[in-house]
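Components:
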Amino acid sequence: MSAAVAEAARLLAASRAPVIAGLGTDIAGARAALLLADRLGATIDHMHSATLLRDLDVMRETGLVLTTPGEARRRGDVVLLVGDGLAESLADVWPDLDLAALPRPTKAPERRVLRLTSGNNRAERTDDGPRTPTARTDVIDGAGASLPQLVAALRARANGRPVRTPAPLVDTMDGFAKILKSAKFGIAVWSAAELDTLAIEMLCGLIRDLNARTRFAGLPLPPGYNAFGVLQACGWMTGYPMRTTFARGFPEHDPWRFDAVRLVDSGEADCAMWISSYGAEKPLWRRDIPLIALSSEDALSPPGAQVQIAVGRPGVDHAGAHFCAKAGTLAHFAAQHETGLPSVAAVLAQICNALDGIGKSPC
Amino acid sequence: MLTCITGGYVIDPPNRRDGIGDLWMENGRVVTAPASGTAHATFDATDRIVMAGAIDIHSHIAGGNVNTARLLLPEEHIRFDPRTAGMPFATAGSSTFETGCAYAAMGFTTVVEPAITPHNALQAHLELADVPIIDKAILTVLGNDDYLLALMRDNAGPAHIRDYVAWMLDATRGLGIKVINAGGAAAFKENVRSFSLEDIVPAYGVTSRRIVETLQRAVIDLGVPHPLHVHCNNLGLPGNVDTAIATIEAAQGLPLHLAHLQFYAYGRDGARGFSSGAPRLAEAVNAKTNVTVDVGQVMFGQTVTVSCDVLRQFMARGQANPSKWVIVDGDSNGGGIVPYKYRATDFHNVVQWAAGLELFLLIDDPTRVFFTTDHPNGAPFTTYPEIFALLMDRELRAETIASLPPAAIEMTSLAALKREYTLNEIAVMTRSAPAKLLGLADRGHLGPGAIADVAVYAPDKDKAKMFRQAALVFKDGELVVRDGKIVQYRFGRALSVRPRADRTVESRIRTYYEATYGFDAALLKVPDGAIGRPDPFETVGCNG
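Structure:
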């Protein structure tokens, strides 16, 4: 590996505008990547920044009412699922959503699940096996209407405003609105991977409206590859989320300018490091660029990488802290079986040493 | 290596030093002057004031809610200063790195983050690990957590409660226990919109008062040095001085710390039904020597309020400025982040500002009133120098009062208060008393054996200037600040207690979490190896 590390350091030292992308790594890897970016004057981005920034943009424009998966599971008597393809992420966050009984202390009503889908690309929930009793589930099938339209119409009806939706759908909407308003502790679940910013803002507006009289909270499903954990580390270390550059000696954040794909495809970046320690995710840019790839061993390295370094999977091959979807917070995981594969943090530390060795000292 | 700070005016109340002398340090500790031999390094402190490093007992600098505030308000911390060489992120606004640098520049060397829910403990410690220079600690928040409330509902004995509290302190690496609007966050999840000391948490049948008393008892029984740290009910509401006084009474003569008392120092007098209740409250504090308080001073300007008091934050959402806010109904407390701008032209804000100063000036004993702004809730901690100046200089207070709306000032007694804090009292309030309150025997003073955390100031008629930029600061005997500028990064430790308890409680907690929240409570644990720095923790001994 030492030759690979030396070559990585050489490429980075020669670069005038490097980008560190992918960032699918644990907290230690994210901290090391941010320190390296600061040292090099590089730009950082995460493979799921686009998704993450949709929720974040709504937060920093209007704010949010949120809850944790644990509280949702415990208290959520009405669960509004917004989207066509939530099944996979939900299985990580809330595997027993369809259980009818609530583990809350009151004699609560049974859980009621409402699904809002456009009817396009609908993915049914996959169940591991029969569970009884199962929560009653009602579905609004938008029959071609888009999710943003459906969310907007539902919010309008919940506030008693007229909509131009066909009458049968309005009746169902009204039924939904009534159930939402009668919730004791309602939960709205969405994934920013399939909603745009305005639809998320509309949905969060509905949650806010409902809180005027009852309790309701949002549970956005987190993208994978520790996107939320890396966001947290970026936040505390720099004050900003991903898509931030350190080129001028202080952090500057811009969701468009510092999009790694745009930087590479436009030719603004002249060297890229791609980090994907959880699986085989590959960069989406199309231009050839000097590339250093840190990937989990079973992942096929991105084509055209000058340097390829196999790294371990956090919490599998080595211990690591990352966002735990089920707990809704950062947690530390011991290795399942130590394989000797290095962590991203360990590799980046070696690259920093190699940078010292070739006289690219910390600025 | 032997180091000597020579010829400074040493103010060290616990060791009765108040005069010119030398201070010797070796291997990170203060030592007695050697009989012979010379220092390897000397620092001339002639015409300088020498004190122990300051300790902040209540400042929200880490954890999920603080980080949400960073991400909520990117526009508030845009900076254009390139960082100094070798100091990553030192100029990144609101970052953990800037936090450590800004504290150290003022001569602070230990800071307590007072509100971390068990759910957020690992993130909080990871954030604190990226705060350079200073040592730090968290207080673990209990009192709205279902496991505790269920124990109380089921009349579990004190031993069960004690074991649970001990397990949580150990798992989360806390220095003490904080309770925030006891039961209020749990009640808010049941759609309760106001919650006071005698109110009952729905579904659990326990009052707020009983939660406070139960936790207070557990903390005492476990020998945790820091008394239960209480954020009372009814924060910010007119007339809430009664709640604070009732909570002081509820302490029943046993140790209790009341946080950011200024936010409870409100009466209902005057045409607007809002007045300072600080004189009454100060009188109550003066009469009860078992109670300690910190102030939570308000200063005018933009800030963001960050609190686990979800109910209060939700009710304050209409005052968000800029108009955006986040509420998190978390496991146990959760949190609320509401940006706010205190204005010198606003009647209520001016009463708040004056009430805080009244508490400082009317509470007689500087060992029982602590210096805080409840950062960032009353003001950012970077306003501390201005507050020191206000406390030490009555003319400055008079000038400031003259610029504020008289109608507001008239609802307070501030204009009549002539007291000026001495440097000795400042040293007690910000050094020796906090160390004692937290059980840190080797901090807050400069006696032999103390950790060599030292702040050296250049006296100035402008007291704010003096405290804004320390002339020299030493952390563990190493120079870290010169003329208010950081000279090197080093990373400190988090202080925590590890009380003894029956560890069989762990299986019960894990079973409960698995059934209730669907995840393993062992995930709440913060192991040393998770922090990513050598020796990240320092254990503080418990009593008994």
